[in-house]
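Format notes (please read before filing issues)

Several people have asked whether sequences and structure tokens are stored in separate files. They are not. Every record keeps both together, in the order shown below: the sequence lines, then the token lines. Line labels are part of the format and must not be stripped during preprocessing.
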Amino acid sequence: MDRPPDSDLHHEFFKAKHTTRYLENYLDSHCYAGRSLRNRIELGFCVESITKRDDEWLVIGNRAQYRTPRIIVANGLFSCANIPKFAGYDTFKGPIIHQEAFGQSSVLTSSELHKVTVIGGGKSAADMVYACAKAGKSVTWVIRASGTGPGFLMSPEGKGPYKNAFELGSTRVAGTLSPSFIGPDTWWRRFLFGSKAGLKVVNAVWSGADKETREGAQFDGRPNALPGFANLKPHSPLFWENGSGGLLTRPDFWETIAPNVQVYLEDITHLQATHVCLQSGTEILTDVLLCGTGWKPTSFDFFSADELARLGLPHRLEDEPPETTKLWDQMAQQADREVLDRFPILAEPPEHHHKASQTTPYRLYNGIAPLNDSTIAFVGYFNVGNFFKGAECQAIWATAYLDGNIQLPSIDSRQLTIARHIAWCKRRYLSNGELGNFLLFESNFYLDELLQEVGLASHLGGWFTNWFKPGLARDLAGLRDEYMTKFSGKAS
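Then the structure lines:
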């Protein structure tokens, strides 16, 4: 990817249009067996069911069906927009627009859409609030009081040799500051979480970053701020990552929001024709309602309930045999004791709003492979810090797995590994960890382990490089050829 012009850069972060252009070009420039990637994609195909028959997978869609001995499912974590259906939803006269459609909408240019209400506490909501405020709109920001609260919006500035905060956070040494079983069990990690001195180091780093973020925003005492500005204070410490958040990519974000945007920390009770109504009785005159409300849990409705349980995908407890539930409960209790014994820091989280899951967590080995079927893999269901790097490593692992090029541990061992990971994830990331698929600060170590199981190492460097250089997607440039050489002798 060519470097974007300086006018589109902020601390080396660039506008999304450059990523879109890169991906579009990638589809056309990468050809295999005479066909480009674009020509291999069937757009507008709606999968209605996936079933296994006679050792083959039958995929039935809206206009065709396919049979295949092996299959990868990759419909992702962010496929189905979460648009709250408030009471009075159908009576509201203005447009209701989800974050995914905001960029193609006329909100910023329409003179008829002046009074804008944005709902949601995360980065997408913040981006829409900022864009509307800069466009001269009258903006109100509503974050529900019954949720996890406003997200952490952190400075993108790097420290020392690192160009930005993402680079710093993408080093393996930064990853050691998160209590985790993932990655090498070094003396440094044992020191950090197994000694009073180490815990002081951990607490100092995390509390320092938390304090720096809050003070940078000046939630209290910022000149010219509207009264509701303080409602943007995150509810939980940064360490726990209980809600959402991200890095600020606009240098004047807080300066724009504070004096121009009214912020409410309240639940919405209902909508009227031209108003958004809050629990306190406040009615907000609104021309357009923007939903920065994220995504619904991934739908696997093309599988039957029995198949969801068999494959280890999230499902209702009542859809699995009682003996299966009992087995996983027993393993979960044992795993939880192991987590707390190794990481006492996770035993007492702060008071927080907890979003309980209505389904079982993901019970996939490495977040990819079912325990009892080696003909199917699931890619893209671990929420990692770098999705570009994550997609590449998971695709390579899934390919090796389906090709039979990985020596897997026993089923019993994999079960215990999955149970421990789920128990750790719930303790480490609270609400975000409920499904056992959240890996923010541990991404590098997780992806290293995937590639290690395949037997690949071209992404690694020397000791200093491995620990202190950012682990970015460009490090993976040699993996395809390394894989081909290792397993087929066909480098290209």
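For reference, the curators noted about this record: The longest strand covers residues 47-53. Residues 196-217 form the longest helix (22 residues).
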